[in-house]
Automatic annotation (TrEMBL):
Highest taxon in the source lineage: Bacteria
Domain (GGDEF) ranges: 466-601
Occurrences of domain EAL (ranges): 610-863
Keyword Transmembrane helix: yes
Protein name (Swiss-Prot/TrEMBL): EAL domain-containing protein
A Pfam family this chain is assigned to: EAL
Stretch list, region Disordered: 1-22
Keywords: Membrane, Transmembrane, Transmembrane helix
Spans traversing the lipid bilayer: 34-52, 64-81, 101-122, 134-154, 166-191, 228-249
Gene Ontology terms, MF aspect: cyclic-guanylate-specific phosphodiesterase activity
């Protein structure tokens, strides 16, 4: 027959069952109504049994001693051998109860069949630990036997001699599933979960169809066994084949449902938390992980698939927080609920050394485990850890299988193990995504927002039409501190300034570190007067002395603010434009008395200066204002000078020494970077040729721009320059950043492969600040990787930076790449790099970038020549 098995949904409770359990939400009033209804059903069942027994005669025979137990076993097997089918969100159970029933109608008295059905049915309910509704079930069991017997004998008596003897039992058998289905629908109605008439009618038709099939199978088996020699053997063989087919079909259904469960769980984990990650709030930028409540569908889906009374998820969503506990199904008893946040290893069930599913049964477990099971109110539990790459992330517990009396099986263990693996991988991936998202929007030194993070928040304010105020604060004298004490001290000063401002503003106000010593505050909705007051307050705050260890560093600060409110009659709706206004205000504040300025339209003169720089750059190249300086690179640990990096400098006759960060971006934006690159390349190759003429084999590195990688003729022009200067391509290194390659990889990668095939050395500059992935690095035809100086500078104070440097060194060597460390400023850093196996060092410990003449003097004063076997000369540092 087909009966309603369960309905999927959160916080469902067990209901009485005709054979399988019906699940729905039940309130106390409905339970009381159902108790009365159960009493009525039991009374009707007992009355129908008494009437049927008094009507039908009891024919005793010795064969009943065999038939009775066989019928009981048949009913019990029919209870056990069921097929569970999920149709949309409703589960149905197909059983074979009609087969032993028709055999009982044909071979045994009413009392024997009734006793066999009651014994098997109630015994199965007790075995399932679902005997709390035994009154209702007992009544239905009695009606399922009494009415079919009455119908069968009434039909045979009415059609005596005109119909086969089996006709009455067949009709009587068909009434049994209809009775069971009808009372199940009535119970569902009493409990407030009635089906629509059309759905109930379809259920009745399906129940009748399956009942007719089972009845026919039972009747045919009986006729073959009773009328054919050795027919019982033939029936037994067919039964074995049918059972085998059932087992195979049931296994396929289970596999299909398990795969659906895995898919549902994976989709739930993938989709949950996306809305939080997409919200442009600082908290969403910080932590887009799933909350505990978002794991509820996952826990409920696991419980449904395992058909468990309860599933408990213990999750450590935050490595620094306590364990969070989520329960799907029946609530945990008070003692277990009170200890829900206990450490994962403080419970005997959760002492999980491996990653396999462990099964506990109260009758077989040690006393300590029994106590844990009793505390949970469970007699059986499956427990599996959620183990990530480096730590225990949580655990999953499944308590007490409710739909079958035999408990959890191997298929359940296998499914739970696979689900746990998926969940652990999902949690690991979410933590990785959270870390990557945090790193994408936050400054690695201070932990504050970076420019990208601030742009995200400011863009949302501008989209909503609200007025956004940006206050920018620059910490002054940072360069002086770095030159005197090293960049590590300068970084400590930046961190201290950021902490001061964060404490002053609170966590609700977005604060970002834009560049080395520049900070910005997004004061959304504030007036210009409030922004001015905030700028003065923050400027005074960062200008206070900084006690660092045993010294006190004097500092100063300048602040500028800008509003998206209309300026020159036009509202600023672009994030970059707003940040640019604040940048202009800061530059103007450096010339003011109090160090604070707000943006005004008159400050557009700054853009005029930038325009002048762009238009004068070509002339500066021709008149010698632009020079190339060189910063030597030294091999580790032998300290041989292996080359130098070519760096551009511009001494403007009006503006003085210009920082490359000021004019190089302008040159790139206006398309003059090609001329700049080849100017530096020509100077570098001339220098290499001069060294070669003196017997020195030293290479020079030249930085490339994203625009160079977009020029398909660039490799040919580099090859022509090498031929003209008669320089081997191995002595030229072209440095490129990850972002420049990934701006248009389809165009840049072929150019890089052509230059690599020429023999030019290619190096990835500032590695660790961009994509920095193994898959990305493997596809680039590079020979060197340069560790970004921010990590090298932080090695002495930050173990994370040291771990990053060590990882990059190991990654580079695993790919047969030369590893160069920038920003080496002290002996301790050099020794650490030597210990890590880094190949080349570059930084202020060796020397600052030097002009051509000063480089030659430095080489003569600080190096000695060593003649090698191939007659080449190698320069080695004297100290």
């Amino acid at each position: 027959m087909i009966e309603r098995h369960r309905s999927f949904g959160p916080q469902q409770q067990d209901l009485p069952e005709a054979r399988p359990p019906v699940r729905a939400e039940v309130d106390p009033a409905s339970r009381r109504t159902f108790t009365a209804f159960s009493a009525v059903v039991l009374g009707a069942g007992v009355l129908a049994s008494l009437l049927t027994s008094s009507w039908l005669t009891f024919d005793y025979g010795a064969e009943l001693l065999l038939i009775g137990p066989l019928l009981a076993v048949g009913f019990l097997l029919a209870e056990q051998l069921t097929i569970d089918v999920d149709v949309k969100r409703v589960g149905w159970t197909i059983s074979f109860t009609e087969i032993p029933l028709i055999l009982g109608l044909l071979t045994a008295p009413f009392e024997v069949v009734l006793a066999a059905n009651l014994l098997a049915g109630i015994g199965a309910q007790v075995g399932r630990r679902a005997a709390s509704h035994v009154v209702y079930n007992a009544g239905v069991f009695c009606l399922e036997i009494a009415i079919p017997f009455a119908v069968a004998h009434a039909v045979n008596d009415a059609l005596f001699g005109t119909a086969p003897a089996w006709f009455g039992p067949v009709l009587g058998t068909l009434t049994s599933p209809l009775i069971s289905c009808g009372f199940a629908l009535a119970a569902l109605h009493v409990l407030g979960g009635a089906m629509r008439v059309s759905a109930a009618a379809r259920l009745g038709v399906r129940t009748l169809a399956v009942g007719l099939l089972n009845t026919s199978v039972g009747l045919i088996g009986y006729e073959v066994a009773s009328s054919t020699m050795w027919g019982w053997l033939l029936v037994a063989l067919v039964a074995v084949a049918v059972i085998g087919l059932y087992r195979a079909y049931s296994g396929l259904l289970r596999e299909q449902r398990d795969l659906e469960a895995l898919s549902d769980v994976s989709l739930s984990v993938a989709r949950s938390g996306q809305s939080a990650a997409q919200r442009p709030s600082e908290s969403a930028l910080d932590d887009p992980e799933m909350s505990v409540d978002e794991w509820e569908p996952v826990a409920e889906r696991i419980r449904e698939q395992l058909n468990a009374s309860r599933v408990v998820l213990r999750l450590r969503l935050d490595p620094n927080a306590e364990v969070s506990t989520l329960v799907a199904g029946a609530s945990l008893p008070e003692p277990a609920a009170a200890a829900a946040s206990t450490a994962l290893r403080d419970d005997s069930l959760l002492q999980l050394p491996g990653s396999h599913v462990r099964s506990f049964k109260i009758l077989e477990a040690p006393e300590e485990v029994r106590r844990s099971l009793r505390r949970r109110g469970a007699y059986e539990a499956l427990v599996v850890p959620l183990r990530g790459a480096s730590q225990l992330l949580g655990a999953v517990e499944a308590h007490d299988r409710v739909s079958r009396w035999r408990g959890f099986g191997r298929a359940d263990v296998r499914l739970l193990h696979t689900l746990a693996s998926h969940l652990a991988t999902a949690m690991d991936n979410r933590r990785l995504l959270a870390r990557l998202r945090h790193d994408a929007y936050h400054d690695p030194l201070t932990g504050l927002l970076n420019r990208t993070g601030l742009r995200e928040l400011a863009a949302e304010e501008l989209r909503t039409g609200r007025t956004a105020m940006v206050v920018r604060i620059d910490l002054e004298v940072l360069t002086t501190v770095s030159e005197a004490l090293g960049y590590t001290w300068g970084d400590r000063l930046v961190v201290a300034a950021g902490q001061r401002m964060r404490a002053e503003l609170g966590d609700a106000v977005p604060l970002a570190r834009l560049e080395a010593n520049s900070f910005a505050v997004l004061a959304a909705g504030d007036t210009e007067q409030e922004a001015q007051e905030l700028a003065h307050r923050l400027r005074e705050l960062v200008a206070e002395p900084y006690p660092l260890d045993r010294i006190v560093v004097e500092a100063d600060g300048v602040a500028g603010y800008a509003s998206s409110a209309p300026a020159d009659g036009e509202r600023e709706s672009d994030v970059d434009g707003l940040l640019q206004r604040a940048d202009v205000a800061v530059r103007a504040a450096r010339n003011g008395e109090d160090g604070v300025r707000g943006y005004t339209p008159a400050m557009r003169q700054v853009f005029l200066r930038r325009f002048q720089l762009v238009t004068q750059f070509r002339q500066a190249l021709d008149t010698g204002q632009v020079e190339v300086h060189y910063q030597p690179k030294v091999a580790l640990p032998g300290r041989q000078v292996v080359g130098a990096e070519a760096l551009v400098r511009w001494s403007h006759p009006e503006y003085g020494r210009l920082d490359p960060d000021e004019f190089v971006p302008l040159v790139e934006a206006t398309g003059l970077v090609d001329a700049l690159t080849f100017f530096v390349l020509e100077c570098a190759l001339t220098k290499v040729r001069g060294w070669m003429d003196r017997g020195l084999r030293m290479s020079v590195a030249v930085n490339l721009s994203v625009h160079n990688l977009a020029d398909e003729t660039f490799p040919d022009r580099v090859a022509e320059a090498l031929r003209r200067h008669d320089v081997p391509p191995q002595l030229l290194t072209l440095e490129l950043t990850e972002s420049s390659v990934m701006a248009d990889p389809e165009r840049s990668l072929p150019l890089l492969r052509r230059m690599h095939a020429m023999g030019v050395v290619l190096a990835v500059d500032d590695f660790g600040t961009g994509y920095s992935s193994l898959a990305y690095l493997r596809q680039l035809p590079v020979d060197e990787v340069k560790i970004d100086k921010s990590f090298v500078l932080g090695m002495g104070t930050d173990l994370a930076d040291m771990a990053v440097v060590r990882s990059i060194v190991e990654l580079g060597h695993s790919l047969d790449l030369l590893v160069v460390a920038e920003g080496v400023e002290d002996d301790a850093s050099r020794e650490q790099l030597i210990e890590m196996g880094c190949d080349v060092a570059q930084g202020y410990l060796i020397t600052r970038p030097l002009s051509e003449s000063r480089l030659e003097a430095w080489l003569r004063a600080r190096t000695r020549s060593c003649r090698e076997a191939d007659s080449e000369t190698v320069l080695t540092l004297l100290h």
